[in-house]
Fold:
Amino acid sequence: MQSDNVAGNDDPLVVVSGVNKWYGEHHVLKDINTTVARGEVVVVIGPSGSGKSTLCRAINRLETVQEGEILIDGVKLPEEGADLAKLRSDVGMVFQSFNLFAHKTVLENVTLAPIKVRKMKKADAEARAMKLLQRVGVEAHAHKMPAQLSGGQQQRVAIARSLAMDPKLILLDEPTSALDPEMINEVLDVMIELAREGMTMIVVTHEMGFARKAANRVIFMAEGAIVEEAAPDEFFTNPRTERAQEFLSKILHN
Ligand SMILES: Nc1ncnc2c1ncn2[C@@H]1O[C@H](COP(=O)(O)OP(=O)(O)OP(=O)(O)O)[C@@H](O)[C@H]1O
Ligand SMILES: [Mg+2]
Structure:
């Protein structure tokens, strides 16, 4: 499934231009420029501390940047207020640690935002949530509390929860890295399916199988900068920079 569902870059969904961010003296995003087309799946990889999470958080406006701009569907990220809430609901986010609401059932986790933010009727939100839970294979657990589910099941609920808001884009930041090995594939399979259905995704992951199967492009970051951008096959078999070669030899050999 390479780029057949990608519309091209003339009307990109995400445009990141000239983005720089510092934490105090520490320059954590260095002149980031990239675009993500509608339906495109981009995998971001790179060593710890290279700025992958910060970039995701900047795109979702969980973090501000001092320089540059980020457009989602042609609209510059708002600073705050109702526009920001709207933007946040356009951009789904799934984190490494399962951040479900612990004191709410699986079903309540998925219906909460549609009811509160989208003012959906409870019955409609529940019907839709059940469909989404079915899609990610956890509908049997709808009435349980998150702690009664495995990590892989919780992460699939987190994906269903972000889909419930009909996002234009989903950011997934190392969604499988806190999972036991036998649960990784069940989450990756859901992500591969989403990619096939044309969801635009930015995924921070070192799962090369996912990148090869589902990604249109790999972005390799090091020390806050984008060092390489290439198609997955090209990147994994023929990384151009020494930095990427060194990184790949490390993740391939452990
Ligand atoms: N809130 C913060 N305050 C200060 N420095 C921060 C903060 N968050 C991140 N950093 C620093 O910014 C840099 C980039 O961090 P980031 O979390 O984006 O890296 P990463 O590529 O996601 O790493 P990892 O693979 O470990 O998740 C790191 O040097 C980190 O220490
Ligand atoms: Mg990170």
In short: DSSP finds nine helices and ten strands in the chain. Strands lie at 14-23, 26-36, 41-45, 67-72, 75-76, 91-94, 169-173, 200-204, 217-222, 225-230. The chain has one domain: 3-97+169-252. Residues 181-196 form the longest helix (16 residues).
